Amino acid sequence: MDLNIDDRWLYCPKKNKDAEKRIFIFPHAGGTAQGYKKWAEVLFERNNVEVCIVQLPGRAERMHEEHVVHMPSLVNGLLESIQHFLDKPYICFGHSLGCLVCFELMKEIRSKSLRMAELMILSAKRAPHLPRQYDKISSQSKLDLVRTLKTFDGTPSFILDDDDLLNILLPIMRNDFLLDESYIYNDSESLDIPLMILGADKDLLASQSELLAWEKHTLNKFNYKIYSGSHFYIFEHEDEILNLMSEVINENHI
């Protein structure tokens, strides 16, 4: 089956060699690149862009690859691929765990003197220098982990009620949570990239104050927007988020 995979790390559903700009999407814990395919298609139709979605090891067509639970190792692998896609101006969108991956990738890109993002849109993740406010999830029992996922309200009930599907999902979730839990923030100079922070008013994993603390990490413009909803508000407000992304593209932020 042709999934239009450019390589292991990037899924670009609508290839556009004439695109003036590129968007990179960094999915949430447990997420796949294919889960954001609709976003890629909508943004492609509305704007002259190419959208590439990050695909981490251990899921989808990379199911048989070993999970990477060490952020520097993951970023190094991703950079090896994504550096070939930095020939055009680009923005980044990350949700939850994807924010950390995006943030650390930008720091590594800066260290290599490669083209930086023109804008980062980061969603539903506390600022990286802040301590985690919840217990470790990666080591929870199966029953407790399923209960936790239900509280996040981001996994369809038909998956949580199906043992066969859970046997596929839970190892992915555990390893992604371990990637997040083992993350060590190393203080460094703030990024000179405009930063837009998005969040939800009922998100138990990222309070408004934790979201606003991201301002510390940019030397450039900072703004934020809070939506109604919980941790996966982006799918409840999908049209609004896509409209927002189209607006920032067309306002020549990039």
UniProtKB/TrEMBL annotation:
GO biological process, any: lipid biosynthetic process
Span of domain Thioesterase: 22-244
Official protein name in the record: Linear gramicidin dehydrogenase LgrE
GO MF assignments: oxidoreductase activity
Stored Pfam families: Thioesterase
Signal peptide limits: none
SUPFAM superfamilies the UniProt entry points to: alpha/beta-Hydrolases (SSF53474)
Gene: lgrE_2
